[in-house]
């Protein structure tokens, strides 16, 4: 159980940092965030909304308990990342832009899997 817990928190911490840093820039409507989003054709007004939603998702994943909310948070972060990945591909950005997305997908998958492993182990020992 200790190994599972360590893997979960390391991977989830990396995911939280990856998503959280960008989310803060989005939430405060940093000029860099707005320029990045409007460059691929989205309106500037969506930036703070997505930022706040990502911050809430990161909080939901980090706070122990609340498995239903965690499911929604993982789904929301996945859809956000997938939508951004698709938008970059559709815009014409090449494979040199794909590495952060692939890392993000891997972190989401491992964090999600280990979250469920921890839940199963917690219920098995209780």
Automatic annotation (TrEMBL):
Protein name listed in UniProt: DoxX-like protein
Record field: transmembrane = 7-25, 45-65, 72-91, 97-114
Q: Which Pfam families match?
A: DoxX_2
Q: How does it sit in the membrane?
A: Multi-pass membrane protein
Keyword Transmembrane on entry: yes
Record keywords: Membrane, Transmembrane, Transmembrane helix
Q: Which organism is it from?
A: Dyadobacter jiangsuensis
Q: Which domain of life is it from?
A: Bacteria
Name a GO CC annotation attached to this entry: membrane
Where in or outside the cell is it found? Membrane
């Amino acid at each position: 159980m200790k190994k599972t817990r360590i893997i979960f928190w390391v991977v989830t911490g990396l995911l939280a940092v990856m998503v959280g840093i960008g989310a803060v820039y989005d939430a405060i409507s940093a000029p860099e965030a707005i320029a990045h989003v409007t460059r691929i054709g989205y309106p500037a007004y969506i930036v703070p909304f997505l930022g706040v939603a990502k911050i809430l998702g990161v909080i939901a994943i980090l706070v122990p308990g609340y498995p239903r909310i965690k499911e929604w948070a993982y789904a929301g972060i996945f859809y956000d990342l997938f939508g951004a990945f698709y938008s970059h591909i559709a815009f014409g950005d090449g494979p040199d832009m794909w590495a952060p997305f692939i890392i993000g997908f891997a972190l989401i998958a491992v964090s999600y899997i280990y979250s469920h492993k921890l839940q199963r182990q917690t219920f098995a020992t209780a």
